[in-house]
Write a structure and sequence with these properties.
Number of strands: 20
Number of helices: 15
Largest sheet: 9 strands, mixed
Shape: globular
Distance between the termini: 45 Å
Helix content: 25-40%
Amino acid sequence: MRVLMVGAGGVGDAAARIAVERDFFEAWVVADYDLGRAEHTVAAATGRRSGEERFSAAQVDASDADAVGALAREVRATHVFNAVDPRFVMPIFTGALAAGANYLDMAMSLSAPHPDAPYEKVGIKLGDEQFALAGEWEAAGRLALLGIGVEPGLSDVFARYAADELFDHIDELGTRDGANLVIRDDDGNEVFAPGFSMWTIIEECLNPPVVWERERGGGDLESGFFTLPPFSEPEVFDFPEGIGPVECVHVEHEEVLLMPRWVDADRVTFKYGLGEEMISILRTLHTLGLDSTEPVTVKGVQVSPRDVVAACLPDPATIGPRMEGKTCAGLWVTGTGKDGAPRSTYLYHVVDNADTMRDYGAQCVVWQTAINPVVALELLATGTWSGTGVLGPEALAPKPFLDLLAAPKPEGYGSPWGIEEKS
């Protein structure tokens, strides 16, 4: 396997640091618009293993499909791993296809609200542009594996596992994400600094969140999708391993668009523990128009308001030393268990920032996202996972993934997951 990873931000950097410990690939090329950043990631990864020579750096414009395809051909990539913001999904996706490579991402092509009824009807959904090209991927005999980060990604693997191993009937697949993370300044005071891309947070939190219900669709997949206003239906969810109760709200996310395609359930939702401060900031940005991606002219220079907001905040890759606490990604499944009795189960993965900083020099949010595509690449390299076309993680066997993730090093990745029964 020869991997071309596009993106050397927080997640890409963490992925390289994780991957260097594994032997399943022949070459791993780190490409970024900023060559210096790619070189920094290569140095950080290779410094973790004596004699490591499989990593190299390259420059690429992720918005240029031809450039991505040309680089993939040049480095003889068998797999293109997309580790940049979702706005670059389609150029990388189509560039990989043109180069004859397989493809993985952690976020899908962007959505667009319905122009007439944005808080009821669904417009262009996350991933629609990618699924429209499924036939071309199948004809090419190549695999595009979408949404294989943590959420989406691990949560989707949990959905398949719950359907296969734990439940006879699923009422709801409810992804629930929460944390007790705190960022402090040099004086020990709490400060605002998002754990991952602010550009992406604005995109997914201010877009109308999508929900899927079988009954609404009458058995038709597409008719089961509908939208709600941002931050709808708040609920307090009690997260495990000391995180505790966190208020969660509906957010637009890929799980809702992926899970109903391959897992039999009556309802699919995604709720995120944003916190009162984040919700207030997002509402203010929207009110002021600072969430817009449309360029405005400032003293003769064209700038996107959202890009300015993101640029004014700390790079998520740099905040690890000032972060403390744990983050939890998981799936709350309700329905009827294999014994015929009602069941309510939370499958989860908790990561402590102190652990990831100590072992990888990466903050926990980006590390938790990065480990899952590396596990997936290893399963693809060994032939344990395979397929063609455009697929989500739910389409593939969950147990090998979960076993490899949790198995102690060096056989596995040493990152256990858990199951908690809810009353």
